[in-house]
Amino acid sequence: GVSCEEVQEFVSSLNCCCYVDTSAKKEYNVDKLFYELFVLANLPMEMSPALHKRVCPCQPVQGTIGGGPRHRGLSIRRRLSEAYGMVAPNVRRPSIRTDLLILRAKTSLQLTGIDAFTDKKPRKEVSCVIQ
């Protein structure tokens, strides 16, 4: 096997790498791992999972459809538009892994000189000088 000291020594010799001993099963150092990932990827800390609130689907959410005198005078369209602000517990959302892969693709394209949106090399500016 490989000891933790050997891994730390190897990782310290690499650029843009860090070592975090973590366990998702035991919830050990998971927040520290995400913090290090966000620092290495230069991502804003607002995206960190540690700042997200856990939502319990069994708790009633304010502004839900129906119930109460508040919705008596609202049209059906207005009630449905309010529903889009609710948090759906089973909705598939982009993961942090997806964000990191997109970021990596953009930075690798920038290093090669290709525009990330058009997949073309940027034109060199040609200016006309009138004397």
TrEMBL record:
Keywords of this entry: Cell membrane, GTP-binding, Isomerase, Lipoprotein, Membrane, Methylation, Nucleotide-binding
Subcellular location: Cell membrane
Keyword flag Cell inner membrane: no
GO terms classed as biological process: signal transduction
Keyword Ribosomal protein appears in the UniProt entry: no
Origin superkingdom: Eukaryota
Main localization of the protein described in the UniProt heading: membrane
GO MF annotation terms: delta(3)-delta(2)-enoyl-CoA isomerase activity; G-protein beta-subunit binding; GTP binding
Gene3D superfamilies per UniProt: P-loop containing nucleotide triphosphate hydrolases
EC number: 5.3.3.8
InterPro entries listed in its UniProt record: P-loop_NTPase, Small_GTPase_RasD
One CC-aspect GO term: plasma membrane
Bilayer disposition of the protein: Lipid-anchor
Name listed for the protein in its UniProt record: Ras subfamily of RAS small GTPases
Gene name for this UniProt entry: RASD2
